[in-house]
Specification:
alpha+beta; 439 residues; three-stranded antiparallel sheet
């Protein structure tokens, strides 16, 4: 087979989801052309997909020896090192890729996660700040990116309320008071309902310099006495997790009083609630888009140290917060793409109009092997049908401020019925820490 035809054949095998066969085809090509960096790189990608990160690493090293400025080889080498648990080395590999293209925020996020996993919280925080700078810049993301070109009436109402909250707290009073009035007018000009829609030209022009930009950050530093509550017992939590098959445990009083108040202030004052697309009626904030803080990273490290049986093998892979704007709508049934999830709640209990509800329902039935999650919306009917035909049951955890639930990420879960008081400070806020990758 001619070289060009052989490469096309190998690439076709790879595209068709046959990585082992593709790897064999790439190796055959390399026997005749060992100096081809691109084929070495493709071999590494195929080997990684077969579950051979060691072989992949060797292939990426061969590619980089031939072409030191091979961006994708540096990035994928980081992935292989990450799979091997060599977190500091993975961060360094991602750093080499970023020297070639500093605007790759996905790689910057991975760098931050690997720095955090290796114990460098300061370095991780700097990486996450860099990702936010990219994601809040229309010049980097594109002016027509949904984050800058779409919104909803409830999103604008929320932003106006947050600006008023900041002004009342004495933060840039004149500026945030003016912005609150501007965003109230924008809310009135949007279609009814919670679904995001393209911004009308007049609204977009008036908000171009401020909408979904990083306008204010409430710095929350590490707590010298520790971020976890003094009563937190990792031994007890791990025992409950083992006993409550297939892996579920509730934790009351997760954070120390100082940590709880500081994190709550961050959620109220920081303008990080940029995403209204993921679930209509909710806003989301993400680790790489302003959610990261010294305190949050301290909490992550404290949990991994306290729960070695549950979290020890699993570094943090993402963190997010959801804020319910409608006051009555919960998050529908879904699973997370990790190994272990830890959900906890921040809004004061007095905001919850139904104290026995508003929390989390975790279904005990494990999904069948090989179930690939498509996305939040497309999976719901399939999940409901699966759960209706299963008798494993579920566990309901009513809402409590500072309560956490730790569970296997592949367990389907959903919010309980949600009914919270109106008002900016009363929006239900839940945070999720996702550890490890789906096995």
């Amino acid at each position: 087979m001619a070289k060009g035809a052989g490469l096309a054949h190998a690439a076709a095998l790879h595209r068709d989801g046959r990585p082992a066969e593709a790897a064999a085809a790439y190796r055959a090509l390399l026997a005749d052309d060992p100096g081809n960096a691109g084929i070495w790189h493709n071999l590494g990608v195929a080997l990684a997909e077969t579950g051979d990160p060691g072989g992949a690493l060797d292939a990426f090293d061969r590619a980089l020896a031939l072409r030191p400025d091979y961006l994708h080889a540096h990035a994928n080498r980081g992935g292989a090192l990450q799979s091997l648990g060599r977190h500091a080395d993975a961060a360094a590999a991602y750093g080499e890729a970023l020297k070639l293209d500093p605007a790759l925020y996905e790689i910057r996020l991975r760098e931050g996660l690997m720095l955090l996993a290796s114990g460098d919280r300061a370095g991780a925080l700097e990486s996450f700040r860099e990702t936010r700078a990219i994601r809040r810049n229309p010049a980097a993301m594109g002016a027509d990116h949904p984050s800058f070109s779409r919104s909803s009436g409830p999103k604008f109402e929320h932003d106006a309320a947050q600006f008023r909250h900041l002004a009342q707290a004495g933060r840039e009073v004149e500026r945030f008071s003016a912005l609150a009035a501007l965003y109230d007018r924008a809310a009135a000009g949007m279609p009814d309902g919670t679904d995001p829609a393209p911004l009308p030209d007049d609204i977009r022009a008036g908000l171009e310099a401020t909408y979904n930009r990083a306008l204010h950050s409430r710095e929350v530093e590490e707590i010298a006495a520790g971020a976890l509550h003094p009563s937190f017992s990792g031994t007890d939590v791990q025992a409950r997790y083992r006993e409550n098959a297939p892996g579920i445990a509730v934790i009351d009083d997760l954070l120390s009083p100082a940590a709880l108040e500081a994190l709550s202030r961050q959620m109220l004052e920081s303008t990080i609630w940029h995403d209204c697309e993921h679930i209509p009626g909710f806003l989301a904030a993400y680790l790489e888009d302003g959610l990261a803080s010294p305190l949050l990273l301290q909490i992550v490290d404290g949990l991994r140290a306290a729960l070695p049986e549950i979290l020890g093998p699993h570094p943090l892979t993402q963190a997010w917060a959801f804020k319910c704007l409608t006051g009555s709508r919960g998050i529908d049934v879904h699973a997370d793409s990790g190994a272990v999830s830890l959900n906890f709640w921040l809004t004061p209990d007095a905001a919850n109009l139904e104290p026995d509800a508003g929390g989390l329902v975790v279904h005990r039935a494990l999904p069948p092997d090989g179930w690939a999650i498509a996305d939040y919306d497309r999976d719901k009917g399939r999940i409901r049908a699966f759960l209706d035909g299963n008798e494993a049951g579920s566990v309901t955890f009513p809402y409590r401020r500072n309560r956490a639930v730790v569970f296997r990420s592949d367990l389907f879960h959903e919010s309980g019925r949600v009914r919270f008081r109106p008002g900016y400070a009363n929006h239900r806020i839940n945070m999720t820490l996702l550890f490890g990758d789906k096995g």
